[in-house]
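Q: What does the assembly look like in three dimensions?
Context provided by user:
Components: two
Sequences:
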Amino acid sequence: MGKKLTSREEDYSKWYNELVVKADLAENSGVRGCMVIKPYGFAIWEKMQAGLDKMFKETGHENAYFPLFIPKSYLSKEASHVEGFAKECAVVTHYRLKNAEDGSGIVVDEDAKLEEELIVRPTSETIIWDTYRKWIQSYRDLPLLINQWANVVRWEMRTRLFLRTAEFLWQEGHTAHATEKEAVEEADMIMHLYADFAENHMAVPVIKGTKTESERFAGAVETYCIEALMQDGKALQAGTSHFLGQNFAKAFDVKFANKEGKQDYVWATSWGVSTRLMGALIMTHSDDNGLVLPPKLAPIQVVIVPIYKGEEQLNAITEKVNPLVKELRSKGISVKFDNRDTHKPGFKFNEYELKGVPVRLAIGQRDLENDTFEVARRDTLEKETVAAEAIIEKITSLLEDIQTNIYSKAKTHQQSHITNVETYEEFKKVLEEKGGFVAAHWDGTIETEDKIKTETKASIRCIPIDVIEEEGKCMVTGKPSSFRVLFAKAY
Amino acid sequence: MGKKLTSREEDYSKWYNELVVKADLAENSGVRGCMVIKPYGFAIWEKMQAGLDKMFKETGHENAYFPLFIPKSYLSKEASHVEGFAKECAVVTHYRLKNAEDGSGIVVDEDAKLEEELIVRPTSETIIWDTYRKWIQSYRDLPLLINQWANVVRWEMRTRLFLRTAEFLWQEGHTAHATEKEAVEEADMIMHLYADFAENHMAVPVIKGTKTESERFAGAVETYCIEALMQDGKALQAGTSHFLGQNFAKAFDVKFANKEGKQDYVWATSWGVSTRLMGALIMTHSDDNGLVLPPKLAPIQVVIVPIYKGEEQLNAITEKVNPLVKELRSKGISVKFDNRDTHKPGFKFNEYELKGVPVRLAIGQRDLENDTFEVARRDTLEKETVAAEAIIEKITSLLEDIQTNIYSKAKTHQQSHITNVETYEEFKKVLEEKGGFVAAHWDGTIETEDKIKTETKASIRCIPIDVIEEEGKCMVTGKPSSFRVLFAKAY
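A: Here is the predicted structure of the complete assembly.
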């Protein structure tokens, strides 16, 4: 296992980076900015995918797959969209390599230059709306509710595992509607779906809201978002859902005949969450001993470690453990019996603590004699001895408890880190000393927003959907404001 | 729906292309050679993925994710590998676009040229073995059994939906082992797993075998394959599993300490199936009316079409259908009640025939009176009237029947299209007049294999694993041969 993790207190950022690698979640690859998602990390992502995919399908969405490449000219069709993505994209210019004539190795074959460059998709609105033009003729073809699971590339200069990588995995929903109202409702519904997933599967409390103009997606009329709060007081945007108006329909000429037979442009939404959620999950719950995983997403929910000397004791333990494993599995609980003889129990305890396995059972000679198990829960690190006859019930209730408990803990942290301030001085002080979300009045201008961001590195995370009307004055300019917005430093 | 499909008799190739588009499986995109997989087609692919993924996990494999991009220098490290893939790859050379100085639009920013070009993965051996070097130190780290679901790109000049596209979806397994024996066993086991999937899920009979040297994967020591036979008598390679020896371990310097503490190179396999399987599925079972799908992979297994005049009749039908739908779903059968009032029953019948829904129920006034349903099976197009009380049992047994029947039909076709020939004249005649697999003696040389391919377009599909020793003479050169190999024209 190597030496202990750096503590959060000591260096939060270093703690995160070490944890991701040591817990076998992901690592950097030989390709700048691109990560390798290791099997244990990918197993968590697969559980997230399965949960989200089920929710998408239950709300009427279907999966499809669109090309990886986007012709350069497509990207340019929606003005603010190209502005947002052109500066950080991978460009394919050739389709062949060849042996260098001077024998120096393999080089790009200049005879195989593409007529038009292809961009590796940073997001798929353009290629999808180019396709939707062929699929939509009449109101009968609407709504079109489609999602795709895909890899995308944005050429970020400073990358961090899961949080910001050049290539990442995500899902992107792209829907088409006959009316503005329907499209707005879809974008809003998805924000709530994302919040539901974050809170009830990931145990990550989030604030739902809308973005200010300058924080909106490139090409959106309105961006809905969910914002989570990490243990270091920084916010993390965990998912966004965009009402795109008719921008892409106009850019790609997607019209439909409405019920009255009149031609109109289609209304659109797009929405996505990515492997960035892994970063949110890790930073919300984990501690100085390693990962803490919500039972609903843990690849291994229960691990059983035998403590034994010699084959005979191991056999006796195995005989007792096997029916338990079988019963737990029949209840849909994923369980691992780690009977490796190459590692000692103490090593195994550390390993599963580091990997965030929610419940750990240990069984040794004394437990055999007393017909008991030692049960440890990962979130609080508490241990107790439980009679064998009560063990199934104990495990079942513990898994529920842990799911609830880590959510409550994160919720308490979030609630105690939303601070109302009245002055800019106070604002800066809270940001500096406490962090978290700071609720303040703002005059609604991009200029003031920019000034605050430049001076404090805090951005407006969102205008919460449950914002309360309240007369006030912008903390910077003193101009009138009728509600508070949430600022924070963010990942 | 448009007009009828071109028949197979008339133009098999056109029939296939039309069917793929009309049955809403896939279509060409605005990007050369890249397809859009439409929701109905993707739903079939998702079922394939789920089936295979379960089989991989049951045999001890885990999923992970490796980068999309491969540095040019990685590709060059294994000599035959680069030879195989350099001629058809997408090359990323820049990481930014900019506004042209002359205002002519968006152009590649020459200041953002990559120091080393990146290749969009055509397959991931190189990037994965570069990673495995860090993961493998000792025999305790082995075997490493990893799979990834991913998109890959091979710049094919002539493309066809599903069968050959520039971008396609696949899974690629990459395993590392301590001994040659173990690696060979893994490659062989996967070939059997693929055959099991093809036959028992897709209802596509296959021949298992090994490839000749010239047909092997670029970098493999041995390639195991499964070969299917399409209705037009052409073969289709449906999956391959490669024993890679120590080639990639040597190229990427991946050594491990064995039990005796000595350093040795790791033994490798890789294996994959792709969206090409969709092509095999379509061409094996479908007919001039459209798709025929095996119940195990059909997104909709049962469709119910009401035949009614007026709201009252529809209500009576709905009342009878609802509990049936519920009961079928509780049995895990996917069912659609198509009560759209925008289309007539005849239109719906054609649509579900085109889309290959295995079982169709119709219910009208007379059925209401007699307490019956009309049941039609897609494979044989037979119809019968079934009493409501027997309908669940009927549907359940029909779904099993159809799965079995389409397999048997395909198996009969395959068996009747394996022809033994003794002379080259006979060989050409069979190829021309009958098609299918032709079993012939061959002298084992690449020269003869090439000559046959050039002259007849038939390649050696495989040396079947159950090949029988038999003294004979090469049909071309007359040199001695001790078993027959299978030739065919192939997709």
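Follow-up: The mean pLDDT of chain A is 96.
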